[in-house]
Structure formats: C-alpha cells, structure tokens
Amino acid sequence: MKHLLSAGDLSRDEAELVLTTAAELRSLADRPIKKLPALRGRTVVNLFFEDSTRTRISFEAAAKRLSADVINFAAKGSSLSKGESLKDTALTLEAMGADAVVIRHGASGAPHRLANSGWVRSSVVNAGDGTHEHPTQALLDAFTMWRHLGSSESGIEGRRVAIVGDVLHSRVARSNVLLLKTLGAEVTLVSPPTLLPVGVDTWGVETSYDLDAVLPKTDAVMMLRVQAERMNAAFFPTTREYSRRYGLDARRMATLQDHTIVMHPGPMVRGMEITADVADSQRSVIVEQVTNGVAVRMAVLYLLLSGADASDIPSEDNL
C-alpha cells in the first residue's frame, strides 16, 4: 500500500491489518515513554488547506510518537494564501524530502491529484477532501467499534450501525459506509430526505427517515454534525425541528440496547444533534475516539513508511 486515499481502496485484510496494528500501538498511551523509534529519520508533512484541530493534532502526535520529523504546513500565512498552486507546493515538499504528505483540502479529489500527478514520490494520506472522504476517521471509528463490539473471530461483522444526520455533506459518512461494508457490518443511514445525497440507493446500505424506529436495533449509533458552513440552502425548517426529529437525547438513549455505544466524529454541536447528558454519558465513546485516532494514524503511517507489519513493532525494551 503506497497511499491511503479512500476507505474503499482497502481490502478486508488490509483494513484488519490497520486495526490490529493500531491495537498494538494503542498500548503506547499507557506507557511512561510514549515513543517508538520506528520512523526515526522519516519526515511527515501535514498539509492542511482547511482548518482542523483534532485531525491535524492527531496526525502530528502519531508521527512524533513514531519518532518521525513533522512539518506543519497551513494554507493561512503561507504562499498558498498568495496564490501558489498545489503543484508548486507539492514540488516544494518534494524538495524538502517529505516521506509522507497528510493532506486536507476543500476540493474533493485533491489528495488523488497529488498522489497520481507524479509531483511527489512520497506517500499521500487523505485527511479529508471536500465532501468526499475521510478514511482515517472511518478507520478510527471502526477500531473503536471493534474494541467494544468486536470478536476475535469475526470482528464487527453483522453488527448494526446507524449513521445519523447530515449525510449529504459528510465525508465521514461516506468513508464509514465503505469501510463498514468491507468489514461486514450492516449500516443504516438516518437523515431528513433533504440531507441524503442523490444516488444513495446505490451505496448498498439501508436508509430511514425515522430515528426512533432504528435506534432499538443498533449496536452503535454515530451522530453527525450538521455542516452549516457547507450549506447554501434551507435543508430543514429550524434547528429546533431538526433536534426534535434527529437529535439524540436521554429519552432516545433509553431505548438503546444495553451494549450499544454512542459515537460522534466531532466537533459536536451540543443541544442540536446530541445533548450534553448523552455526550457525557457512560455509553459515549466520543473521547475514546480521539485517543484511538492517534493509534490508528500511527498504524497508517507505520504501515505506509516502514514496510513492516504489526509483528515488527519494537517493544518497550527497544526504546
């Protein structure tokens, strides 16, 4: 695997390799020394054309815990704000000797363009492109489900996952659908009809407009943020009406099965798609998703850049 551009590019074996590698690296969070020498001498560039907190910091932490050198390259304040093209930026990164470029871009397909252009020889990781995909978010979500709901024999195969909210503008939803289907989970998209994309019937998942009918049957419920910044029309009457129909509150949480977990990719709009008491409840694994995100992104960088697998991860004795 040279690049990670789409969750759909991963076979089941490749996806499970990322998850098992992440499981090995997850133990670093509990060690006194949270670093491995696995990528010492390698350079990872975080190239972010869109604002980000969780994803950029998560990739930075992941690279540093593997002892890689990290260059953070933000569009604001750089030559990009003066009109420099993606090509010239890529050539600059190539001249710096980048081994991996983690890119977030507002245009769908920008990471594919960078990876397939011949401008760089480094590995390219898609950290979110427009409304298209966010594959490492899908991997960390699957890893979180696997830790809570999975088995050693079948992983999360057969588990029922509800993805609720603004599917139309959500790259997280698209990547999750692709990856969860690969891993054998059953996915239901719950959304107002105005927030379901055209052609969703070809995605191979169920859709519903009735959240209350879906919740009692799910093993994991993932709430999505309503992305008002990507909207230029009225997709629902009011925020109060949206919350009443599609928000997760204590009443709805009480209808979940005992083992069902509540997820959210963040950032949350508390009180709209999810209430504070649900977000902070024992069912919520939202904070754990952030911790798992570092382990999963470590696994991705490790597998792309080291040419090794989970069995070759150095032990604490080698630090």
Can you tag this structure with a few keywords?
319 residues; alpha/beta; Rossmann fold; 2 domains; four-stranded parallel beta sheet; 9 strands; 35% helix
Protein described:
The chain is 35% helix and 14% strand. It has 2 domains: 7-133 and 290-318, Aspartate/ornithine carbamoyltransferase (Rossmann fold); 135-288, Aspartate/ornithine carbamoyltransferase (Rossmann fold, 3-Layer(aba) Sandwich). Helix 4 links the parallel strand 3 (100-105) and strand 4. It has helices at residues 12-26, 54-65, 86-95, 110-116, 135-149, 171-182, 211-214, 239-246, 250-253, 276-279, 286-306, and strands at 43-48, 69-74, 100-105, 123-129, 160-164, 186-190, 206-208, 220-223, 261-263. It is built from 11 helices and 9 strands. The longest helix is centred in the C-terminal third of the chain and has 21 residues, at 286-306. It is an enzyme of class 2 (transferase). Catalyzes the condensation of carbamoyl phosphate and aspartate to form carbamoyl aspartate and inorganic phosphate, the committed step in the de novo pyrimidine nucleotide biosynthesis pathway. Belongs to the aspartate/ornithine carbamoyltransferase superfamily. ATCase family.
